[in-house]
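Pasting two entries for a bug report.
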Amino acid sequence: MDNQTTAPVEQSEQPTDVAQQPEATPSVKETVLTQSEPKAEVQQEKQETNFKDLIPKDFQEEKSLQNFNNMEDFVKSYLSAQRLVGANKVAIPNKMATDDDWQEVFDKLGRPKTPEDYKYDFKEGEIDQTELKNFNETAHRLGLLPKQAERLIKFYQEMNGESEQAKLVAAEAKQVEVESLLKKEFGPEYNKRLDQAKKLAIDTLGSDILNQTILKNGSRLGDNPDVIKAFSMLADKLSEDEIIKGDGTGYMTASELEKEISELTEDGSPYWSKAHPNHKKTVEQVLKLREQLNG
C-alpha cells in the first residue's frame, strides 16, 4: 500500500491566459446597439436648435442680430469685426465740420497732394490743356480720388464729343437750307453776291468768328441768311467801287486792284528791272490785274 503510486492528474493543454469571450446574450446586444444611437440623436437635436434661443433674452430683439440664423455666421461676423479693430479709420465730420476738416478726410482717403498729380492716359492733343488744368483744380478741391477723376473726365469727353457732332450735323443742315433760300432770292447773281458777302465778312469779322459762332437756331454765324444778305448789301454800297472777280480767289474792288498795281509798279520794283529774276512774273501779274480792272 505504501508503495502504491498515484497517477498524475491530466492538465488541459489550453493556455490559461486565453479567455474565451462568451457569446453576447440578447440583452447585451440590445445594450450595444442602444449605445451607438446617441450620435445621430445629437446631430438631429443640433439641426433643430434655433439660433435665437441661444441669445440671452435681453438681447434677442437687437436688430443687428436678426440677420443671423446660425452660430457659424455669427462667429464669422464677430471675427471680421475684430480684424477691423486697430485698423486705420476715417472719422466722418459732422455738420459743424469746417472745410479744413473735410480736406483732411479727402487726403486720408487718397486724394493726390496737388491738382497736377492727377494722371490720365489721353493722347497728345486729345484734350485741351487749359480745360484739363481747370478740371484738375476743381477735382482736387472737391476731394475726388484719382479713379473718380479719370472716369468723370472721360465721361465729359465722350459727352462733349457727342455734343460737337450734333452741332456739326445741325449746322450742315442749316447751311443747305440757307443756300436754297438765297439761291431763290439772289437768282443768277447768287455766286457773285455770296462771294462778295463772305469776303467782306471775313475781312471784317474773321473766319473763326463766322465758322465757330453758333446761333440759337443751330446755324453758324457765317451761314445765317440775314448776315449774308447784310454783308452783300454792304458790299454793293461800299465806296461805290465795282466788285470785280479775281482769278479764282474771289472778288476785289476796283480800288483794291489799283492799289495792288501801284505797289507792283512802284520805283525800284522788279517791274522796271529786266535783269531782276522776278521781272517777267511781276509784269504778267500787273497785266492780269489791269485786264481785270478794265473788264
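Entry 2 (this is the one that rendered wrong in the viewer):
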Amino acid sequence: METVNLELFGKDVKVLKALSTAKNVSVTKAPVLISGEAGVGKRTLGLFIHQSSSRSEGPLINVDCSLDAKEVENQILGYRDQETGKFHKGALESANGGTVIFSNVDGLEDSFQKRLHSILNELSDYDIDLRIISTTTKNLSKLVGSGRFYRGLFTAISSNSINLTPLRERISDLQMISSHLVNICSEGQKVIGQDGMSKICSHYWTHNIQELKAIIEASVEKSEVDCLEANDILIGERRAVSMMAEDDSEGIRLMSLKDAEKLLIKKALVHTSENRTQAAKILGVSIRTLRNKINEYRQDGSAFFVNLR
C-alpha cells in the first residue's frame, strides 16, 4: 500500500486545517465526506485517514461510484457468477475491520442511494464493522436540496466533512509542490527557473495536483537542462493526463462500445464538476457533440444525465 506524502498537500492555512481535521477523525470510526475538485487529493486524504487509524492493518477497498450502475452495485454488495455459481464478496463484507472509500459518491444511481442507506444501517446486525469514507467533486448538500441526492444517505456519510481547496487558489503551495516534485523526479538534479515558475503559476490547473504531477514528470524527463524555464514546462501540449487515474482501481470492465462511450462522458462530467466545456476538451469533441450525447442519454432515461443541471 502506498504511503501518503503530506508535503504534497501543501502548507496553506485551509489545507493545514483539513489535515488537522483528518488526523482528529482518524482516531474515531465516524464516516467522513471529502469534497474538492478532481485531482486535488481526496482519495489520498482518505488513504491517510485509514493509515492513521486503528484500522490501518485492516483492508482498504475503493469503489468508484461513477462507473456503470450495475458494476458499482456488484462491487459494493457482491455478486454471484452466472457461469460458476460462485459468490464474490462485495466491498462492505470484504472490508470488515477496515475502510471502504466511495469515490465520486454523487455518481450513485438514485434508486441505489436509498437501498445503500438502508444496508449501511443494518451492517451491525451482520457483525460488519467498517468505516465509510466518501469523496465528491460536488456540493452534496445542494444536491440534497434539489432532490438529486438522497438525504438519508447524505446524513449517514457526512457527519465529518473536509473540503480541499483547489491548487490554483494556493499559489505558495503551487510553487512549493512544483519545486518538490521536480526535486523528486530529477533526484535532486534539476530546479525550476523564474520563468518556468511563472508559467506554472499562470496555468489553470483543472486536475490540480494530479495534472501538475503529470506535467512535471514529463517536463523533467524530456528536458536536457538543469534549470527548467518556460519552454521546458510542457503545459499546453496535447498530453494524456488521465482523468481516471485518481479513483480507478480495476479500470473499465468489458462492455459495449455504446456503454463505454456513455461511461467516459459521465466520468468526464464528474471530474470537471459538470463543466461541459472542460469535459468536451478532455473527450476531444465539440461542445455541440457533447450536448447531443447528453440529450440522447436523457431520452434513454439514464438517471445521471436526467438529473444533470
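Dev reply: Rendering is fixed now. As a check, the viewer should reflect this: The first strand starts at residue 32 and ends at 35.
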